[in-house]
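LOG
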Amino acid sequence: MAFPSKEQFEAIYGVSETQTAQSRFRHLEEGYQQEFGNADLSYYTSPGRTEIVGNHTDHNGGKVLASSINLDTIGAAAKNEHGTIEILSEGYPKIIVELSKLSEVPKEGGTRSLIAGIAEATSRFGFQISGFCAYLTTNVIASAGVSSSASFEMIVCAIINDLFNDGKMTPSDYAKIGQYAENVYWNKASGLMDQMACGFGGPILLDFAGEIQVEQIPFGFADYGYSMVITNTGKGHADLSDEYSAVPQEMFAVAKALGKERLCEASLEELLEQFAAIRETIQNDRAMLRAIHFLSETKRVADIARAIEAKDFPKILAIIEESGHSSYEVLQNAYCIADWKEQPISVALALTNAYLKKIGAGVCRLHGGGFAGVIQTILPQEETDSYVQYMEQYFGKGNVYPMNLRQTGAVRIA
């Protein structure tokens, strides 16, 4: 394949970032050749994602407004004749997975397990797979709520789709394959939101109540003269697995007390009518609050979709801000109660609110799984550089990222 053209880069990255993108992909080409030798290369990109509204709703059949972002994983790949998947992600050891020995790959063994899970799921779902080599690099922030793992999964799926399936796999197929790999090979009870947002590209409205419904939404903060900034507050020192698992488990407990399987089958009115009895039954006030968050948050997603259609930007901002307050105060995933002295999310939100109050514009919210990681800020474009400098004082250079909503999902560029 030919190296991507300037026009192809402009279509994905925009005119201002084309030169940087070209340099990144040339670096990929050189890295591949040094590691694997000369080959007829194809080139791929897979974005990270941002959640705009819909915090912790996908696992209980709720709704989410999410989008791909302009941070991405990029790759160069070619078929091999070894019957192996060989992937070198820059900065990490090369991983080799033999396709004839997937059952021998240990579970919960990091990236090697994830690749084996993707390979197994590809065959299970009726698609073709064979050996290939790939050289990858990424600028998606790791362990920070913008889905670096899903971005990786989706680029591997895009490579498999292009090299062996003639483009027959859809982004929904990618997402299900990525979810299978995480569920079975990582033993991680992930939903599909991260993979769907990375795979499809652009702002999308997701409804998880039944067979997943996806609607692409024409929207961008830049349309209104605003920017989105993600601040990485740092990974918490506590093991967050139990914190993350407790959120869906507590929501499921309330749903069960309502006689439902998932909270999407109930309404806020039903919950409030039976609130006292359910509270007495489950003896868990946090679970009750989290159920209120879910039912209110799902409605907020529908509300923001209508506000976007009406081009009512003040309403859009108000809903994002309300979502953030609900996550912090009702869902309660800003920090770990067991490690209450460490609250980087709370600190970042407080510092940001002080800045936004001073300029008289913008909103901020907790982003992603919570308990540690990132916050999201929406503010006027002319204030972006000043805000970045302000937050870098507290969280360090390179941890505050202005970014755009990107329209391209996980695809082959050339």
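LOG (cont.) second protein
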Amino acid sequence: MATRNESYDVVIIGGGMVGASLACALGTTGLRIAVVEAVPLSAATQPSYDDRTIALAYGSRRVFETIGVWHAIDAGGVTPIERIHVSDRGHFGVTRLAARDANLPALGYVVENRVLGAALLSVLQASSAIDWICPAAMESISIEPAAASVTIRAGEATRTLTARLVVAADGAHSTVRSAVGIDAERTEYDQSAIVTNVTASRPVANTAYERFTSTGPLALLPMSQNRYAVVWSARRAQAEELLSLPGDEFLAGLQERFGGRLGEFSRLGKRAAYPLALTKVREHARERLALIGNAAHTVHPVAGQGFNLGLRDVAALAEVLASAHRGGADLGAAALLERYARWRRRDNMVIANFTNGLIRVFSSDLFPLALARNAGLVAVDLLPGVKRGFIRVTSGMAGKLPRLARGLPL
């Protein structure tokens, strides 16, 4: 079948939550955008809009409000996180964080991935500026001084899309990143995150829990109807064993690890496990190309920073591109994209070091380190200035914030 040639301002490879968010953010800027996604959103194998839940930081809510997506997310069902209880299993250290400590309405919001996906898709499909090409997979990419071209296969048809800028939003094992030869440094944690949900007999409204254990952190996030989303990080061999257990035995193991603060757990949801790794790239952008989301970085899910970090990539890149478009600048110019890369490097480094540090410090059984980390938890709990700073980082309100995260339109 003949190849079709089509021209765009921006082609986004990957229509998961990060790629779709960028398209929504750019949809009102006057740019012509294409989003290429390999897996239909309705498919059971769709990796972004599956049964998992996500903890949106307060800063992420601001981004979604500003680009006009939050109303649909809220209507689909969200649970505010007003308090977070952090503890070290078997030790004395505890930190209690509250939204009021930082004068915020909430520290974050728990939302199901499918709800977020449906909200983003509704905006995408309503925009005349965005072409949603799905299912389709990239076959090759060519970057030239004047433009980039991407060859995709959609069914039996081969199409060539040309653009001033290609954005890689195709995940941790990015095809785009590999095709252009951008190196990624990947450090395996030898851990998998088991995700599921349970019902608690004694729930504490709008309170999330992060409990560090000898095998990895255990997070419980509040949902509707007395349910909690569970993110249980465990060594990979142990994770496989936990997945194979009958439901009642899994619940008993979860109860033993977490304790009785929420009463008894019941009604176990579907379980799945995802391998965990820290990924860093040497280049966030080059001429005609930018990386966002997991294509640019992955972090441990402790403290729930991964997607929120990717959404700040979206907000920063959208701001740089919108400003360039208004000024008639070339969207794919290396100097322009280096502005985006410099902006994101510090935030990426801070969050990678923060999450990696938590895992390293809390995985050791050495007494001096255990004493020091628990003293640290107590210090955060008792010192208001330290607590506010900690909240600002975890809620996505620290550093140089993009316009969208400050509630300002592009």
